[in-house]
Write a structure and sequence with these properties.
The protein is an alpha/beta fold. The chain is built from 7 helices and 7 strands; from the N terminus they run βββαβααβααβαβα. The strands form 2 sheets. The chain has a 5-stranded parallel beta sheet with strand order 5-4-1-6-7, with helices on both faces. Strands 2-3 form a two-stranded antiparallel ribbon.
Length: 132
């Protein structure tokens, strides 16, 4: 993968509502071309549940950053800084997807490209714009 290629950080699932319909094939497609990471504001009990319930789709992610494990929550600036440092690429190379406007604003304030997701079409359009 060339150094100019983006990295994707996706917030893909709501613990209570389940997997977003149509997201699994988009993640599979993106994972063939980009390293994927997830970042979720969650606690240990929820993580234990979704790590089993959504194991097939979670397999697309290189790492999952959990607020309960890193001690930081979106949209706090330090949380994005932590994830960027852990991924090891400049913030400008990370495309962050989230369904909450405040998390999008927080990511953008730290230099990430951010996509507000209201449907799988938002993810599909963003991937298409990246040539994926």
């Amino acid at each position: 993968m060339p150094n100019s290629s983006p990295t994707c950080a996706l917030r893909w699932v709501s613990t209570f509502a389940g997997e977003m319909p149509g997201i699994a094939p988009l993640l599979a497609r993106a994972a063939k071309r980009l390293p994927l990471y997830a970042f979720s504001n969650t606690n240990t009990a929820h993580a234990e549940h979704f790590s089993v319930a959504y194991a097939p789709v979670l397999g697309h992610f290189r790492e999952i950053f959990l607020s309960s494990a890193i001690g930081l929550r979106k949209p706090d600036a330090a949380s994005y800084d932590h994830v960027v440092k852990a991924i090891g690429v400049p913030a400008s190379r990370i495309v962050f997807f989230d369904d909450l406007a405040e998390n999008i604003e927080g990511a953008r304030s730290r230099g990430l490209t951010a996509v507000h997701v209201t449907s799988p079409a938002d993810v599909a359009d963003a991937l298409a714009a990246l040539g994926i």
